[in-house]
């Protein structure tokens, strides 16, 4: 196998999402995830926002789509965010319910049969599939997909 070139240590820098309505998406991501706007372009032809926490860029939004997320197209499957505890997952679920978000499963579910990790699976205003999970505390419910990864089939 060929050796990779360049740096040997990689981590995700940030994720960019196309959105149909910048204001609606901004309000959603700021409220659900507690992001802060780090930079923003407000020109009608080029709306964008850089969102992060503690000075770290996490998510970029680009208003350049005219239709919502399509799960049958190649590309992003889902975007997952890890939190420290199942209590934080439950708190996020309460906010999402207040916002009327669409959930793929009812409540917190494990990542697979017998797994302690798990969380909630839902969609943003454009239908992009999202997950908020904790490494432990989700083993009180059955796994929706049995032994298959829950996050792979929603």
Automatic annotation (TrEMBL):
Annotated Pfam families: Glyoxalase (PF00903)
Span of the signal peptide: none
Domain VOC: 11-135
Organism: Sphaerimonospora cavernae
UniProt KW keywords: Metal-binding
The keyword Kinase belongs to this UniProt entry's keyword annotation: no
Official protein name in the record: VOC family protein
Coiled coil: none
Record keyword Cytoplasm present: no
SUPFAM superfamilies: Glyoxalase/Bleomycin resistance protein/Dihydroxybiphenyl dioxygenase
